[in-house]
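Budget justification, computational time. The allocation requested in the original proposal was used primarily to generate structure tokens for proteins on the priority list. As evidence of use, we reproduce two of the resulting records. The first is shown immediately below.
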Amino acid sequence: MARREKIEYLIIGNSAGGIGAAEAIRETDKAGTITMISDEPYPAYSRPLISEYLADRRPLERMLFRPPDFYEKSNIRTIFGEKAAQVDFNEHTVKLESGRTLTWQKLLLATGGLPVVPDIEGIRSKEVFTFTRLDDARAIAQFLSQYGRRVRAVVIGGGLIGVSVTEALVKRGVEVTVVEMKERILNTILDEQASALEEKALMQAGVEIVTGHTVGRIGSDSPHEPVIVSLDDGRLIPCEVVIAAIGVQPRMELVADSKIKTNRGIVVDRHMATSRPDVYACGDAAEAYDFVSGENRLTPVWPNAFLGGRTAGFNMADLATEYRGGTAMNSLKYFGVNIVSAGMVAPPDDSYETVSEKHGDIYRKVVLKEGRIAGMVFSGDIEKSGIVYNLMKDGVDVGSFKEVLVADDFGLASLPQEIWRARLAIPPSALTLSPVPAKQPEEVLAGE
């Protein structure tokens, strides 16, 4: 009979959500046994940095977001490089691919996402890669190393992953064509104006962008000939490597047929608990509360995964904690363009209003619903975006001063005193004695 090991807290996943949960558990329960399972063999690393690994071979040590001895010092047992194959939620067991069985009392599913692989003829060819993990970046780098000549790449998908890998490839001297089925790149996280600014930067770097078309076939006539990417309009693009960067989907195979409530992801409540007792979920795999929409949504970004993980960890350790909610949120700098976006960037109907300002490559836009911020896009000059984000997160009614939010001279001092005074805990009398320098409150609020 297979040996069973009893664990108080079992975490499947070793990225932002899993780490956040483990730390929260340890803050509350110093002695309870914690085990983390990951099918990757590495300590927790920052996934956004895989593009820098591909671009300049950034070593793993410089990608870690916790020290190498984090697990040992936190008394966390790790099972890395091995996949959790099956969960029995009735028996509270997890079976690993090796056949070993673990028994748990509380379980966190921080399983993350899987790359979306489109149903395209030839998509499984050896010249085609995805780009969501360190091993993907390593495989692409190794593949490119065999070429001592001009290398051409086709990136399928013009979203965040696509633009990220495109920049890394360009830095390696690769000629890149991006194929995006929608009419513009980064269409899910940026509005038209911000997308246009990013597209301009890509084109100036020599990237060819094809929008409004899809890839129909990937193939080569012989091993010594280039790969041919065929588009839906009959266009043929020769290349040596193809990156499928369509996006990610929640990794939910462990809850299949489990009766745990799912929608697009694993549905959780404000405690990050699933519909099954003693089972929690967070991160890319979970549908959690979005404070902008007021509903559960997938928001696969690192800060939400980490905070959701911490909330789950506290509740697993019996410290009742409510998740305040997250929302879509991105801060990027690709091809030299600084952009921050959050919430709803494209209003769906006339019940929303927008205020915006654009001159040159500087663009600011705030979306409002009944006087409260529902979304924002800042490009070029993002210094004050943290203030606007916190006003959105706190649900502040900005209707009476909405125009100043996108002004060139906007700062914390532009807001009504009662708003920023409460955030800085400054008594009213202090305001008459010594004025607060404008820079100080901006840094405090943006750093919350």
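The second record produced under the same allocation is shown here.
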Amino acid sequence: MNRFKISDTPLDGLKLLERLVLRDPRGSLERMFCANDLGAILGVRSVVQINRTVTARRGVVRGMHFQRAPHAECKIVSCLRGEVFDVAVDLRAGSPTFLRWHAQILSAGNAATFFIPEGFAHGLQTLSDDCEMLYLHTAAYAPEFEGGVSPRDPRLAIDWPLPISFLSERDAAHPPLDSGFRGLDS
């Protein structure tokens, strides 16, 4: 039995995974990852790194991050505690949805997971205090191939639901895309 409902989003390759929660008098069980159930979207990729973040305050923005080839990565992102506005931006060269973004509310209560393919920048804004996120990555972190885009980039015009209450120095230093940016190669 597949424990995930996989839905398309308006951006090709970007998927919403709804975890099917099993409940009984003891509580609940939900599968966070299954290579067999997600094989159709994972293909030959494997999860090689798992990260967890905890963000204390509402309104914080983390992102917008990506890794360049040959260390480009897919991310499988879930919220374990709290609620976030999770955003993916299509940076793929030649994509018909180039520079478009799509967001999903991920929360501890909605059992939603975002599958973000290579070539997308990813970030989030916390909608509640004390948010905990789980990230599964198909490539190990490679700082020399890391990139970022300003979450305030006017070309992207991400409609953050709250005023940005905090942005790390690193994320604040990410530049907006210049007019010559043509996308990430795969």
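A brief technical remark on that second record: The chain has one domain: 4-172.
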